[in-house]
Write a structure and sequence with these properties.
Helix content is 36%, strand content 14%. The chain is built from 6 helices and 3 strands; from the N terminus they run αβαββαααα.
Length: 153
């Protein structure tokens, strides 16, 4: 990862203002019980039966010429194996062209803020970033009130 960062610096593309290192998030959902039973121990160590909501996926920095450097927190070189849900979000964002995270205020804007304004802006940015990864609730048909749960024990 440090070698890639060094290579990017040597290319000479400037980081976009407000697009320097910032976290990106993914929505950590529950895994299906059969998946947890069948998976090898080293696959998806963070998978579980309960959703955790928005989680930090890693960091992103955007450069000139539509170049982004994205890391995946806690994965090493085996992103799909160790962080499958973060990997899915990374691939989805890459293919769709959606940004990994909204820009932050510029360095000059941050420097001009009071401590309270800084805290307020970063809290709002974090809440906005997390809300962007949570899918809207699925619509339930009004006519159907029956529920069904299938579980193999």
């Amino acid at each position: 990862y440090e070698g890639t960062r060094t290579a990017l610096e040597q290319v000479g593309f400037a980081a976009l203002e407000g697009h320097q290192y910032r976290p990106w998030f993914y929505d950590h959902q529950e895994a299906v019980l059969s998946t947890l039973r069948e998976k090898p121990d080293l696959f998806g160590p963070d998978l579980g039966l309960s959703p955790s909501g928005p989680q930090m996926g890693g960091h992103v920095v955007d450069y000139e010429h539509n170049l982004s450097f994205v890391t995946v927190h806690g994965s090493g070189h085996m992103v799909p194996q160790f962080r499958p849900q973060a990997a899915e979000m990374l691939l989805r964002r890459l293919l769709s062209g959606e940004p990994f995270a909204p820009p932050l205020p510029t360095d000059a804007e941050l420097a001009a803020m009071t401590d309270d304004a800084f805290d307020s802006i970063l809290d709002a940015w974090t809440n906005k970033s997390k809300a962007a990864v949570v899918p809207p609730p699925a619509a339930t048909p009004a006519a159907s009130t029956a529920t069904s749960v299938d579980m193999v024990v």
